[in-house]
Description:
By secondary structure, this protein is of the alpha/beta class. It has helices spanning 12-20, 45-49, 56-68, 91-110; strands spanning 2-6, 25-27, 39-42, 74-80, 113-118, 121-124. Strands 2-3-4-1-5-6 form a 6-stranded mixed sheet, sandwiched between helices. The termini are close together.
Amino acid sequence: MDFVTGGAHNGKLAWALTHYGSEAKVLRKGNSLENLGNLVIVDQVEQIIGSPELDADQFFRELWQWEQSSPVYQLVLIGTDITGGVVPAEREMREWRDKVGFYYQQFTKEAESVYRIWYGIAQQLK
């Protein structure tokens, strides 16, 4: 698993499709985990983490199990960095921001590679 992060609208998905291959299946909140192929890019993971109708733990667990089931499977997670800047006034938004930060720490710990994308330029952090 690789993790890609950076600011909003900074070219994370475009970079990932160029770096990993445009034949990737791109998943977002609400997409099915069926017929995944060999390369899966999950875009906007912060939306999945914050979704009240999804069990984020289960969603990511199923993806990790899928990736581990074959040496040719590759999982790439893309998340917008929402943890900097002004702390939201609303309690729910603060809790979501904290939860996203916790998940990103776990993704970074488990990832083989971690990239930060700023304006389409990649910086490898791990």
